[in-house]
Amino acid sequence: MIRRALPALTERDCVDTIAAATSLSGALFQMATPSAEIAELYRSDPRLSPVVIDVEPRVARMLGAMLAGFVASAG
Asked: What is the pTM of this model?
């Protein structure tokens, strides 16, 4: 499906994109869903507010940048 949308990408680019999406989503989900104790810590200290993330837009932005790089390198 990725190659249909972006035919300039190689099969390896597509596989790397899927691997990155899976890895990023898993890691960021863990950060976005902390335990109750950690969530309370985040709420209690305004300096920690940047740690709280919204997973979907963050992953979309990072994958978009990755795909833009792949397309640019494909020429």
From this structure: 0.78
Residue 66, pLDDT score: 96
- Tell me which amino acid residue 74 is: A
3-state DSSP assignment of residue 66: helix
In order, the DSSP letters of 26-65 are HHHHHHHS--HHHHHHHHH-GGGGGG---HHHHHHHHHHH
- Could you give the dihedral angle defined by the CA atoms of residues 56, 58, 62 and 67, in that order, rounded to the nearest 10 degrees? 30
Q: Mind listing the pLDDT tens digit for each residue in 22-47?
A: 999 999 998 889 899 988 998 899 89
5 Cβ contact partners less than 8 Å away, ≥ 6 residues apart: none
* Total Cβ atoms within 10 A of residue 39: 12
